[in-house]
What we know:
Strand content of chain B: 5-15%
Number of strands of chain B: 7
Shape of chain A: elongated
Strand content of chain A: under 5%
Helix content of chain B: 55-70%
Number of helices of chain B: 25
Structural class of chain A: mainly alpha
Distance between the termini of chain B: 59 Å
Shape of chain B: globular
Number of strands of chain A: 0
Oligomer: heterodimer
Number of helices of chain A: 7
Amino acid sequence: MPQDPAERRVVITGAPRRARRTSGYYRPRTEIDEQTTLGHTYVRSLMRSQLRAACVTFAVLVLLVGPLPLAFAAMPDGATLEWAVLGFCLYPPLVLLARWYVRRAERNERDLVRLVEDR
Amino acid sequence: MNENYSVPAVALVVVATVLVGAFGLRISRTTSDFYVASRTVGPRLNAAAISGEYLSAASFLGIAGLVLVQGPDMLWYPVGYTAGYLVLLLFVAAPLRRSGAYTLPDFAEARLGSQAVRRLAGAFVVGVGWLYLLPQLQGAGLTLAVLTDAPDWFGGVLVAVVVVATVAAGGMRSITFVQAFQYWLKLTALFVPALFLILAWQAHGAPRDAFDEPPAFRERRLVQIGSTLDLKLRSPLTVTATGTVDGRRYEDARVRLPRGTHRIGGGTRLTFDPGARVPEAGRGGADALSAAPAAGREERPLYATYGLILATFLGTMGLPHVVVRFYTSPHGVAARRTTVAVLGLIGAFYLLPPVYGALGRLYAPELTFTGDADAAVLLLPDRMIGGVGADLLGALVAGGAFAAFLSTASGLTMAVAGVLTQDVLPARGVRHFRLGTVLAMAVPLAASVLVGGLPVADAVGLAFAVSASSFCPLLVLGIWWRRLTPPGAAAGMLVGGGAALVAVAATMAGYPGTAGTLRALLAWPALWSVPLGFVTMVLVSLATPARVPPGTAAILARFHLPEELTDGQVRAVSG
């Protein structure tokens, strides 16, 4: 965050949040705090991007898991495969999906904070 | 099973739980510490605590038993329990933490500002919590009965007393330490014996027929039948019997049983030859933790599988002991990272129960019809290795199983007691919380002692289905949809959750007796009751647009904005 040295000193001695709030008299920040139309637009756009990230990840999950019971039922001797997939192979993709989503969600939030505080 | 080792192991787990709890008690000073550990629990400790709390007796013993009896289709249970956390992460985790509420009723009130919705959510939390506590207590009784000669009720009472003592004494902070400790204990207790069992399996030439359908006996096996049951034979079978078979007495005689159903009297001893196909249990072989609503699965296996997937994927987010954990994270970002860590931890744990299920099919196939399938995890070390080593491994598993009962029961008691203290008892504060703890545990304990023979796995399935049809719509729509109204939320919870409740209650009561589509629909309600809950909530909300709560925009802003932006006036505006 570009701040001049004098302000940096305040950050060290005081509570960090308060310190940042003194620099927060930029327009978007007040818009959000005061519930103006522009503030609502910021919140809405954040919600939309977060919901999109969640829905994309959920769609991948559905595509990954949804066809499996049908596939197992269609295969006459799919028991061994079913053991391997359900017992082991599904867990790593679940964790990877979660990590991918968290990175994306945190990026969305960082983008908004940067927009609000540094404009 | 040698009780000289397993009883000290169980005692050790109980004592360690109390000690770790007491350590937490010493640093649990304020009311905030008590309820939410002052919201300072870091992701790693919190993730271990969440996982420790979540991995219940149904996970530790039940999954291996289910897989043993019903085959690999049952592996959808652990997959669903894990994926439920992914869905929770996607739609709920961070906004739920930022809502600043402590329980689900708090969330309902903060979002909708309605006392009626709050009370309804509270009733569902208490109901789901009690349903989930019941199998923990009964599972503890079953385990102690298998390990020792203790009466069935003793294990449940033991768990109840230890849990009430730790929760009432230390509250959330001490529970956090206890749960984190118990996750690692449970993982060790399954992992170390599994290593030895796999080594033993390799020493036996790594037989692969565990995956055959149906399983067969590998060696000559004497099976003692406990109480009278029916066996279904797909092909003729020759056994050596001492006791009653189809109403006739035999004394160490070879009996050739034709294809069909045969009634075996209680106390009968059957000796199976190597290579004999394992018969299936008919009625009477019903089992405690692993008797999933098998009704309906037989007729509509694909429908039942999808019902199971939907209930576990969407039901996890509404379980009261899961939700309460998110308030202990310091902020929304930490709540998300905690959830990812939880996915890793429980995913790692769930790699182990299938190992026990597969080895159980190989080495203890008779458990599929004797009704002790839940004991597979406890019995395998003795069956496969033998000697003092097996006794020690068995003791480790027994200790882990008890950790499973204690941890899940603690979390559920915490959540139910929180709701009872805030919404039912006249005043808040730590003393009333302790009273709430006793109440939260007393009801399911009384039920487990009185209603001994209830099929408890149905209670777990019921809890997931009810949670998926009531709390999932409330949380998802409450967090993402601006036009949700109090009447809509109440109607959705009542119609969706109520329908699921009625459906599974009807199944448990044995209705309808005839096999068919209706029975499958009622036994696995999630596939229709979840959409019903969502649709009702949306339609009633759209029909009552005037009732959209006034501060909705500010509340949703608080749910979604990062904390650094909401420290100012937004919180003041929305209360």
